[in-house]
Design goal:
binds pyridoxal-5'-phosphate; 16 helices; Aspartate Aminotransferase, domain 1; 39% helix; 13% strand; globular; alpha/beta; Aspartate Aminotransferase, domain 2; seven-stranded mixed β-sheet; five-stranded mixed β-sheet
């Protein structure tokens, strides 16, 4: 099999050839598609013959992106959606019902916590917490109403790195699928299928979009979970076997929710995928250098990056990711005021909420993504006022360090 970068660039040969031989798959900016006969339309709607009928359900440009990701991950099925949050929402709605529960970490991206704890709780979903750093803690929390274990590969912004294979081993004993948010690692750094993850979620807004070009999300069914054992889709599994989860998405949740990926965004993200390997290499090496610089700086109380040997997650991250630890890190100054002063003095680094852009971005999580929570709740989520999050881009690393250095000198 060809390497990751070649597959990301060329897709799966022979992929559908454009009628004009265009080397870049075109954007099919059309809401609807005509088929040859009424009978064919019936076959398309009843799922008996795959063909595109309406872009909210499928679209050729979106499909090209999905198939590239499927090839790269060696997965069973991929559904591309409008954003990372849409991917998480669709997955939970496909696998959970009112009265059921999910087991998750106290350390999650702020909007994911809000989705679970506010939005979905109102619809009867119970959210149970366990320490992902201690996989055995899952055993006492999972019961016969548990529909999934959900965690982030590197929690944002706590930077906790769990041993995913071990989490999968414990969940498998209980016949519960592990749903992993792999946004910060992407399939370039971490092969979730090999670890036993059932479904990987990715916000393709981040690394994959090629530089904050568009929002997007991916639901990747690795084909590792026997859906006959899952109460939500067991009936479907009797009819369509391993396609049960993907079918539930395509023929119900994804179709009905309407959070489809726009064809133009799929095109941008397919282009972004082609340079993912190059950009991630640079972002990871830059992040390690910046983390090392920050750790040596006297004003900085603490740097949290799993690439540093001082991180409690270094050994796990090294075993899981090789020598690539991602582009995100956090560090602490002595007060919120100092954080704001540093951020406001930066000349090249941008103050912005996104991450894994080509540009280096800086953010104060407590006053932004976590502003809906009070100080006590934030402390429980390990998000304090002294924390700064830095998403290290792919600029010349010395320029990133120089910008931080001049800002720190002014404190
Ligand atoms: N998951 C993680 C780990 C994230 O950091 C984010 C956004 O920052 C999301 C999911 C949500 O992705 P999106 O903004 O594409 O909805």
């Amino acid at each position: 099999m060809r390497g990751f970068a070649s597959r990301a660039i060329h897709g799966q040969p022979p992929f559908k050839r454009d009628v004009h031989g265009a080397l870049r798959f075109p954007v099919y900016d059309s809401a609807a598609f005509e088929v040859g006969s009424s009978r064919e339309l019936e076959l398309a709607f009843t799922g008996r013959k795959p063909s595109h009928s309406y872009t909210r359900i499928t679209n050729p440009t979106v499909e090209e992106f999905e198939q590239k990701v499927r090839l790269l991950t060696g997965s069973f099925a991929v559904v591309a959606v409008a954003s990372g949050m849409a991917a998480i929402t669709e997955t939970v709605l496909a696998l959970c019902e009112s009265g059921s529960n999910i087991v998750t970490s106290p350390y999650l991206f702020g909007n994911t916590t809000s989705l679970f704890e506010s939005t979905l709780k109102r619809w009867g979903l119970e959210v149970r917490k366990a320490s992902m750093a201690d996989p055995s803690s899952l055993e006492g929390v999972i019961d016969d109403k548990t529909r999934m274990v959900f965690l982030e590969i590197i929690s944002n912004p706590q930077m906790e790195v769990a041993d995913i294979s071990e989490i999968c081993r414990v969940a498998k004993q209980k016949n519960v699928p592990v749903v992993l948010d792999g946004t910060l690692s992407t399939p370039y750094i971490f092969r979730s299928k090999e670890a036993g993850v059932a479904v990987e979620i990715i916000s393709s807004t981040k690394y994959m979009s090629g530089g904050a070009t568009s929002t997007g999300g991916l639901i990747i069914d690795n084909g590792t979970f026997n859906w006959k054992q899952h109460p939500a889709v067991a009936d479907d599994a009797l009819k369509v076997g391993p396609a049960a989860f993907a079918t539930r998405l395509r023929r119900e949740i994804h179709r009905n929710l309407g959070s489809c990926l726009a064809p133009h965004n799929a095109w941008l993200q397919s282009l972004g995928l082609e340079t993912l390997a190059l950009r991630m290499e640079k972002s990871c090496t830059n992040a390690l250098e910046v983390a090392t610089f920050l750790e040596s700086s006297l004003q900085i109380l603490h740097v949290n990056y799993s690439g540093l040997t001082s991180s409690p997650f270094h050994a796990t991250a090294l075993a899981q990711f090789g020598k690539r630890f991602g582009g995100l890190l956090t560090f602490e100054l002595s007060s919120k005021e100092e954080c704001f002063n540093l951020m406001d003095s930066l000349k090249m680094i941008k103050r912005a909420t996104n991450l894994n852009d080509n540009k280096t971005l800086i953010l104060h999580p407590a006053s932004t993504i976590f502003c809906d929570y009070n100080a006590k709740e934030r402390e429980e989520m390990l998000v304090n006022d002294r924390m700064i999050r830095l998403s290290v881009g792919i600029e010349d690393v010395q320029d990133i360090i120089d910008d931080l250095k001049q800002g720190l000198e002014k404190l």
